Amino acid sequence: MTDSKKKGGRKSAADNEKKVIRRKMAAIAAFCFCAVAGCALWMALFSGMAPSSAVVRIPANATKEQLRDSIAEYLGEPFAKKVSRLVGLRGTDLKTRHGAYLIEAGMSPLTATRRLTSGPQEPLTITVNGFRLLPVLEEKVAARFDFTGDSIAAVLSDPEIMKAYGLSTEQALSLFLNDSYEFYWNASPLEVVRKIGAHYDDVWNQERRAKAESLGLTPAQVMTVASIVDEESNKLDEKGTIGRLYINRLKKGMRLEADPTVRYAGGDFSVKRVKNPRSIESPYNTYIHQGLPPGPIRTTSVETIDAILNSRPHDYIFMCAKEDFSGYHNFAATYSEHQANARRYKRELDRRGIY
Prior knowledge:
Mean pLDDT: 88
Helix content: 40-55%
Low-confidence stretches: 32-44
Largest sheet: 2 strands, antiparallel
Order of helices and strands: HEHHEHEHHHEHHHHHHEEH
Distance between the termini: 131 Å
Strand content: 5-15%
Radius of gyration: 36 Å
Shape: elongated
């Protein structure tokens, strides 16, 4: 081999070595770039925990913008931006995610994204306790869901739906027994009514229905009596006595003459001393109309229902608040006894300046 050929071979080997080195350097540079870019992406999207706990609601047919606004409302714009980008990367159809989801304090954007795009909903609890007016109850319930008060009112005013529970539309308030109920935020008005109605049916089992029948009443009528009893007293140990008193009056063909029905008819529940009870014309005023009012005057409880159904028979047809203002009542079987009780109570009202 000549010297020129040897020199040419050495040059070619050196060039190849340089190419290899350049390729290695390029690979190292590309790796470093990707590492830096990946780190930047991680910092941009995955870092930064949820500053607090919040329930994020995804409306029906939500857009990405609506989701972002919902997150930002409770957890701030920076966190909302990161979660929104990750939701976009996952390609989730938000139309399938209508609901409410709990994002807990300290959750990463990635974990929050998983909760919103594939996690379970957070249930909510509705508590019913002593509502007097159905429209008020409808608005209070609707405020917790993704529907309006008018939409649940439409369900409760449907005669066929109420008929399934043995109620008229005027008795719809009876369906809402004082209790706590668990739902999901995206439940429909009909689903809410059906779940509450299922509880009503469970309460009015065969045993309770038989007890109501033995009193000569339907479950709906017991509910109305119970609503008046709850307005008369908060003492559970005398509610059965009061309920039986009103049943006695019904059986005798007497007007109930219950002060709470006058307050309900007048729409003023703050009145302590009812005057001129016959001055208010209303089918709910039991001073001027015979029998039970068209429906209950408030929501009632299982405890009150059972107190009435299990009450002991007695002959009382009159009652008057005790003059010691203990919240209890004096009961009487005759009008003369009742007058004596009423005079004592009136004197104490006058003495205390209650008009």
